[in-house]
């Protein structure tokens, strides 16, 4: 069955009104997207900030009369918004497959692969993480995750204990376990991340070595060999004391989620407890590594 999509571009202030209008006109769903290029990085749980200029899409049943829909929208809204109105027919397809078609097996370093469930790489000795990110961050497509995965791939992890601070989908925790880490403690302040991490650990048969820590207090009382934290620069700076207390002397910290212009500030902050290595860059993102003194 085809669908009809109505798109409108509007201001942050008008967006909730248009969303409500679409719902009142029978939209089965509404989607809000950035109409320009304004990244909204890591809102806190429960926060749903929207963009200064937002594109709203209402998805309607294909049986509705599109001329009538256009008239109702034009009639209700100000003339400064309605010129952006576009209606289009969306043909039905196997939506589950459409998502998977855009999520291919990806390799990181010499042997680590992130694969959608059921897809296997054609490489002998490959270490495969089967992943379903659910609603959490972390498919490997973002350079910050990629930098951490490449770091894990080139680092001997056998027998080591790690903390994955801000675990998202659990991608780094599961990869570390598959690469031989003895135990990983994973934490995130977003409950959906904890759910996704648990599901991915079970899918990859490593849940017996993953300890999910729903709060910082549940992290191990003794420091570990490696702390991974792919969060944002500001949060990494705030967490420096805490992350240092979680890292053994001689242990390592691996930080990502840092834009190139923020690297110096984060590195300087971490020199209070760590000997920092030169930054590693991919696109505009940085990975920093340090050894605890
Ligand atoms: C950029 S994602 C990284 C996810 C995954 N580790 C990866 O590398 O793809 C950052 C994650 O950190 C979590 N996070 C941000 N600030 C946090 C904090 N102060 N404490 C715990 N988790 C936090 C977010 O909820 C998000 O899941």
UniProtKB/TrEMBL annotation:
Q: Which InterPro entries match?
A: Ribosomal_L11_MeTrfase_PrmA, Ribosomal_PrmA_MeTrfase, SAM-dependent_MTases_sf
Q: Which GO molecular function, any one, fits this protein according to its record?
A: protein-lysine N-methyltransferase activity
Residues that bind S-adenosyl-L-methionine, according to the entry?
Answer: 145, 166, 188, 230
Compartments annotated for it: namely: Cytoplasm
Reaction(s) catalysed by this chain's protein: L-lysyl-[protein] + 3 S-adenosyl-L-methionine = N(6),N(6),N(6)-trimethyl-L-lysyl-[protein] + 3 S-adenosyl-L-homocysteine + 3 H(+)
One GO location term (cellular component): ribosome
Chief localization class?
Answer: cytoplasm
GO BP, sorted A to Z: methylation
What Pfam family is a match for this entry? PrmA
UniProt keyword terms in alphabetical order:
Cytoplasm, Methyltransferase, Ribonucleoprotein, Ribosomal protein, S-adenosyl-L-methionine, Transferase
E.C. code: 2.1.1.-
Read off the Gene3D superfamilies from this record.
Vaccinia Virus protein VP39
Give the function comment from the record.
Methylates ribosomal protein L11.
* PANTHER family, per database record: ELECTRON TRANSFER FLAVOPROTEIN BETA SUBUNIT LYSINE METHYLTRANSFERASE
User: What family classification does the UniProt entry report for this protein?
Assistant: Belongs to the methyltransferase superfamily. PrmA family.
Q: Which HAMAP family match?
A: Methyltr_PrmA
| Name of the featured protein | Ribosomal protein L11 methyltransferase
Q: Which organism is it from?
A: Sedimenticola thiotaurini
- The gene that this protein is the product of is prmA
């Amino acid at each position: 069955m085809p669908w009809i999509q109505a798109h409108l571009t509007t201001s942050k202030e008008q967006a909730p009104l248009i969303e409500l209008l679409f719902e009142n006109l029978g939209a089965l769903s509404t989607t809000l997207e950035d109409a320009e290029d304004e990244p909204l990085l890591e809102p806190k749980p429960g926060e749903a900030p929207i963009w200064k200029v937002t594109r709203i899409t209402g998805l309607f049943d294909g049986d509705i009369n599109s001329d009538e829909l256009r008239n109702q929208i034009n009639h209700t809204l100000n003339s400064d918004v309605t010129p952006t109105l576009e209606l289009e027919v969306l043909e039905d397809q196997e939506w589950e497959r459409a998502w998977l078609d855009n999520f291919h097996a990806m390799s990181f370093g010499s042997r680590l692969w992130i694969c959608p469930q059921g897809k296997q790489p054609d490489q002998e000795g490959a270490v495969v993480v089967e992943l379903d990110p659910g609603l959490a961050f972390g498919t490997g497509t973002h350079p910050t995750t990629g930098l951490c995965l490449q770091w894990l791939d080139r680092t001997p992890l056998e027998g080591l204990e790690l903390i994955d601070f801000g675990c998202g989908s659990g991608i780094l925790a599961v990869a570390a376990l598959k690469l031989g880490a003895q135990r990983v403690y994973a934490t995130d302040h977003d409950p959906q991340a904890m759910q996704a991490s648990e599901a991915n650990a079970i899918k990859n048969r490593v849940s017996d070595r993953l300890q999910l820590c729903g709060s910082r207090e549940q992290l191990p009382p003794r420091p570990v060999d490696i702390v991974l934290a792919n969060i944002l620069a500001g949060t990494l700076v705030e967490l420096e004391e805490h992350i240092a207390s979680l890292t053994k002397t001689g242990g390592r910290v691996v930080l990502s989620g840092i834009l190139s212009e923020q690297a110096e500030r984060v590195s300087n902050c971490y020199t209070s407890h760590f000997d920092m290595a030169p930054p590693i860059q991919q696109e505009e993102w940085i990975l920093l590594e340090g050894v605890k003194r």
